[in-house]
Amino acid sequence: MKTAIISDLHGNAVAVREVLASIEKAGIDRIICLGDIIGYGPEPEAVMATIIKLNIPTIIGNHELAIKQPAFLEWFNPNARISLEKTREMLSEESLAFIDNMPNAITENGCRFVHGYPPDSPTIYLFEVPDERLEETLEEMEEHVCFVGHTHELILVSVQGDEIERRILQREVINLAPDKKYIINSGSVGQPRDGNNYAKYLIYDHGKDQVAIKYVPYNINETIGKIYQAGLPEQHAWRLL
After folding, report:
1. How large is the C-alpha radius of gyration of the chain?
2. pLDDT digit string, tens, across residues 37-93
3. What is the CATH number of the domain that holds 24?
4. CA nearest 223: which of 202, 192, 195, 183?
5. What is the pTM of this model?
């Protein structure tokens, strides 16, 4: 069985289309989305509609949380807050209902899926967790691997002896050790922040215990143009480059 893991789509319908085309060619059995379908990008409703139409199980992200609980908007910086306020106006009733029913985590086939940090936080960033807490989390985690998003940066974390192993991921295939536990960040489809502007996603091969990191090019200028047309903060446009 192969699962494609997508995260942080952020209303970037142009990137989402290319990633879904890549997934279709890869012979995937299942897609799971780790949240932040919306925010920053110019086409939140188009991306939401695609996720709903394809019936993709989706974890709630911090941006969806702000739509579900408007008081949470205070958690965001001013530009992100402006983006989310505009985003809410773009969403259909069907999309709002979908957001209301997003779970905080999914577990299946020895895997956990969460937006921010296990077991079920949509707001904690992996990079802000101290080593001691990481060790405790991995020790207590029942699943073999937890896939997260939120930071928009590809990284693998595991315990190696008495030390935390952190590995920045590139376009590669990684063989996981069956006797170890992992937290793996899947990067971002809609707004990568790892120094490479391709859309990113993962494929987890359950049988081989193998993770493939996929880079997908898309028309960035098209998305940038749509951000300006939507009247969203300029920062959201140049961040894509």
Report:
1. 17
2. 999 999 999 999 999 999 999 999 999 999 999 999 989 999 999 999 999 999 999
3. 3.60.21.10
4. 192
5. 0.96
Number of domains in the chain: 1
Name residue, tokens 């942080």: 8
Taking Cα atoms as reference points, which of 185, 189, 184 lies closest to residue 200?
189
Residues in the chain: 241
The owner of tokens 């192993």 is 165
- The sheet carrying 111-114 orders its strands as 105-108, 111-114, 145-148, 182-186, 154-160, 163-168
pLDDT of residue 163: 83
160 pLDDT above the threshold of 80: no
Helix extents (H) in the chain: 13-25, 44-53, 62-68, 78-90, 93-100, 131-140, 220-229, 235-238
Beta-bridge mates of residue 215: 200
Complete edge-to-edge strand list for the sheet that includes strand 30-33: 30-33, 2-6, 199-205, 210-216, 173-175
Domain that holds residue 171: 2-238
DSSP string of 94-156, one letter each residue: HHHHHHHT--SEEEETTEEEESSBTTTBSS--GGGS-HHHHHHHHHH--SSEEEE-SS--EEE
Q: Which amino acid appears at position 138 of this protein?
A: L
